[in-house]
Amino acid sequence: MIRTPLRPLAQVLWARDTGENPDVIERENIRQRHEEMRGALRVRAEGRLLIMSVLFLSLFIVVGARMGMLAYSEATEPRASAAGTAIAAQRADIVDRQGRILATNLETHSLYAQPPHMIDKERVADELIKIFPDLDRARLVKDFTGKRKFLWIKKKISPEQKQAVHDIGDPGLMFGPREMRLYPNGRLAAHVLGGSGFGREDVRAAEVIGVAGVEKYFDEALRDPSNGGKALTLSLDLTVQAAAERVLYGGMKLMNAKGAASILMDVHTGEVISLVSLPDFDPNDRPRPLTEGDQSDSPLFNRAVQGVYELGSTFKIFTAAQAMELGLLGPDTVIDTKGPMKVGGHRIGEFQNKNYGKLSVTDIIVKSSNRGTGRMALNIGPQRQQDFLKSLGLFEATPIQIVEASGGKPLLPSRWTELSAVTVSYGHGISSSPMHLAAAYATIANGGRQIKPTLLKQSGPQYGPQVVSERVAAESVRMLRKVVTEGTASFGEVEGYHVAGKTGTADKPKPTGGYYDDKVINTFASVFPAHDPKYVLIVTLDEPVETSGPEPRRTAGWTAVPVAAEMIGRIAPLLGLRPEVEPTSLTGITLTSN
Fold first, then answer.
1. CATH code at position 173
2. CA-to-CA distance for 398 and 580, rounded, in angstroms?
3. CB neighbourhood size of 440 (10 A)
4. Would you give the DSSP letter of residue 532?
5. pTM listed for this prediction
6. What digits encode the pLDDT tens for the residues 157-172?
7. Which range marks the domain in which residue 395 is found?
8. Helix (H, G, I), strand (E, B) or coil at 557
């Protein structure tokens, strides 16, 4: 920048020659210089203001865009982040309807080894074998003396085992804190709880995850820290479950059965109060699944929800109820059940080739007539029959909250012909689980309103659509009551509790096709008390045979019914049901006066 002098010599000399004042020249130059300086400062200030305006506008646009994105995005739970995600080991408890513990957590330790830090590796292997006899000494020595720098020895150990390992005194043996899942009641309700295992794990913690049953179905909820560790409350009653398991196990052994299942359900809420499947297992030491053969032979198989069977004559009440609902007949309508009866070229027979002749609808149910039920089904028709059974939930897997239930989808006829309608009417040609049957009987027992089974405690009745009228439902229960008082379930009477129900005996199908001659699936579907139904009890036995008589007996009336009666007698008082004893006349007593 060239700076102009305030008193240029040429101008000063010219001013002296012309008689002007040289100071005027200086003042004028000063004024011009100030004008130039003010102009430069103005330009600089305007530039700064422009830059600041652009910056503020940009920030405003960014903030506004971010606020808009937040307004239109889904709300998410803020989570703390840190280097290396910690393993969440905490898992909520599972309790029964009374708040009693079914599954909880126990603080324990894992045992691992760092071979490079070991002093006497062979001695350590010998000492560990004394504490854990299931370990392989040769494998331990190989691992300790090889190139491995880390290996698990036991994923969970007891305090006594930890102390014993600590006493070995080798610096290469290390303990890691962790939680394990504990089922304090052992085998009780094993198929409902299912079991758990370890997911992600390190030496400081392990993730406990559900592997079956409600543990797996509710896995996310049980591990969700936002629930605050709130316990999962099931509909089961611990004392009722224990009594049911004890009775069913004794009945299975007494009847020489291969397996057994029972379900106790509240007919108004759909709550499963008890669910038993035998043989069972201990979820604290869950066995491995079978890798070959029939999975139903495994103790892990849940017969109550996974097992789909032809449930035999227990289906007959559905046929009678639908026929009455359609107005085709009434309880006293007489139907000719005499043979022969042929449908689609196949002969429809009765048990032991009986010929009942003319029977009322009630007597058809009481005597369990196949021909009588089949003729009702022909009047109903295949399509209407399908619609009715579908409304009872017998076409899809039950929605109960247990992962195994999805595998219990009913097996239906590929073509629903008139022959299919007849056989299905008495429980053949269609396979469903005991849980399906329990929900369907609950629908009949509660006044005809659809019921969906649940393993969660409910606050009150949970009714679905009306399937049959209250009148038809009441008539159906009266028929079932007569089956116990006059028919095939006479061993099912429990004094004071007015049991109603229906037996079902079905030949067991062969894996290669056809049916066994000497193997059956027996079921007794019962309702009690009959005059005011509150509960449904299903008892199913796999391949039972009663051998107390001169000849083996395989019908449900001789096998499943007595087991169910014993169970009702045990559990009804636990449910708070008081027996209603009818007054009798006093004999052998003489009145005297003083």
1. 3.90.1310.10
2. 34
3. 28
4. S
5. 0.79
6. 888 999 999 999 999 9
7. 240-574
8. coil
